[in-house]
TrEMBL record:
Keywords: Acyltransferase, Cytoplasm, Transferase. Its EC number is 2.3.1.41. It comes from Zobellia amurskyensis. Its main location: cytoplasm. One of its GO terms (molecular function) is 3-oxoacyl-[acyl-carrier-protein] synthase activity. CDD domains: KAS_I_II. GO terms for cellular component: cytosol. Homodimer. The keyword Aminoacyl-tRNA synthetase does not apply. This is 3-oxoacyl-[acyl-carrier-protein] synthase 1. PROSITE patterns: KS3_2 (PS52004).
């Protein structure tokens, strides 16, 4: 018999807010974290704006020991440890004693590229024949599972501790991986999340592909325009989001607060067949992913009242709306409310799904639907399918009951998770 799984803790390190309180306020007010980056101008980037959390030494010392900070340059690890540690504390959980790990708690914390700056440093040290100067942390900073390894040691988790990586789908996929482990009885709680490094060595490839907005360097807050007719490409971002998933029995036994329940979901790939490519989704696969998520959750299409889409502010936004409409067999005013958060903090790549899950779940707590900024000119391809009032531009009062959150990533990979308001 499968167990019910709920969310009991959340943490976030986002470009527009670090910590749940600041992040929730920024989301409700439409505060942007997209800024001009002088470094990108100096390097000759066409798009000279990006979104990254603003860290400082005082903040970092609250999460890392002086020894851990020595030589630490992997921003993704910094973001992930902040978000993950905060989620653990938000859930009211304690750190395991030094003598023995917590066998019932595990971690699935994803990443895309990790420790890129450390790789660059290593290349120069090796070329200069200064290998010994790399330091003892170069390996953990550059291995994909470095972030989960850091968190596993900090929290003392003794269940599965691992890292997943599936491009922009990483965070949402990780939620479903953690859900499955608890639902099947293999763990009581799982810290799930994802992170992405900051900096030109991560963002340069996208600038070279000319898929970033180049005409907004002087007004960065208006650059990311999901579902807009004037959308000119996604703004690169970074950060981390984290959620503590827990069996309902465990959460209730310790009197934990509950943000929402996970009903189920689906993960698939379009195989880069049909209209799917390395960078474009196979529409049939997207629709199947959504439909299978609904079926796995044990609900009907018309039960969904809220959608948080992937919606990156590219030419594919209209296609995504068409796929949602086809999968749910809903259109016009019957279509659920839908929003994209990338107008406020850009596309955070491998961290996107987890940060957006945190924001989506905050809407349950706040009884709000966060607005779609920079979407005054909804693309006509979209208004042909759904009514404009389904895409509120500012935050409105709205109590989600069942929310679908999806992510679609490079490599033609998809994930959709169904969240439900917890009321029993």
């Amino acid at each position: 018999m499968r167990r019910r799984v709920v969310i009991t803790g959340m943490g976030v390190c986002a470009p527009n807010g670090i910590g749940l309180t600041d992040f929730a306020e920024a989301m409700a007010l439409g505060k942007s974290g997209i800024r001009f980056q002088p470094e990108l101008k100096e390097l000759g980037f066409g798009c000279q704006i990006a979104a990254k959390p603003e860290l400082n030494d005082e903040l970092l010392t609250q999460y890392f020991t002086p020894l851990q900070l020595r030589g630490l340059s992997a921003t993704g690890i910094m973001y992930g440890v902040i978000a993950g540690t905060d989620a653990w504390k938000d859930a009211g959980l304690t750190i395991a004693e030094k003598e023995q790990p917590n066998w019932d708690s595990g971690i699935i914390f994803g990443s895309g590229t990790l420790g890129v700056d450390k790789f660059r440093e290593a290349i120069y040290q090796i070329d200069d024949k200064n290998v010994r100067r790399l330091g003892s942390t170069s390996v953990i900073q550059t291995m994909a599972s470095g972030v989960s390894a850091y968190l596993g040691g900090i929290l003392g988790c003794g269940n599965q501790v691992t890292t997943n990586s599936s491009a922009c789908t990483t965070g949402t996929e990780g939620v479903l991986m953690g859900y499955e482990r608890i639902a099947s009885g293999q763990a009581e709680r799982m810290l799930v999340g994802s992170c992405s490094d900051s900096g030109p060595y991560v963002w340069a490839g996208f600038d070279a592909m000319r898929i970033l907005p180049r005409n907004y360097n002087e007004n960065p807050e208006e650059a990311s325009r999901p579902m807009s007719a004037s959308a000119a490409g996604f703004v690169p971002g970074s950060g981390a989001g984290a959620l503590v998933l827990e069996s309902l029995e465990s959460a209730q036994a310790r009197g934990a607060k509950i943000y929402a329940e996970i009903l189920g979901g689906s993960v698939n790939s379009g195989g880069q067949r049909g209209d799917g490519t390395m960078t474009a989704p196979n529409s049939e696969a997207v629709q199947r992913c959504i439909s299978q998520a609904v079926a796995h959750a044990g609900i009907q299409n018309n039960d969904i009242d809220t959608i948080n889409g992937h919606l990156t502010a590219t030419s594919k936004d209209g296609l995504e709306i068409a796929n949602w409409s086809a999968a749910l067999n809903r259109s016009g005013s019957d279509f659920p409310y839908i929003n994209s958060f990338k107008g406020l903090f850009g596309h955070c790549l491998s961290a996107a799904g987890s940060i957006e899950c945190v924001a989506a779940l905050l809407q349950f707590k706040k009884s709000q639907l966060f607005g779609n900024v920079n979407c005054t000119d909804i693309h006509p391809e979209i208004t042909e399918i759904i009514s404009p009032d389904r895409i509120p531009q500012k935050t409105i009062l709205h109590q989600p009951t069942i929310l679908a959150k999806a992510s679609f990533g490079f490599g033609d990979v998809n994930a959709c998770v169904i969240f439900k308001r917890f009321n029993d």
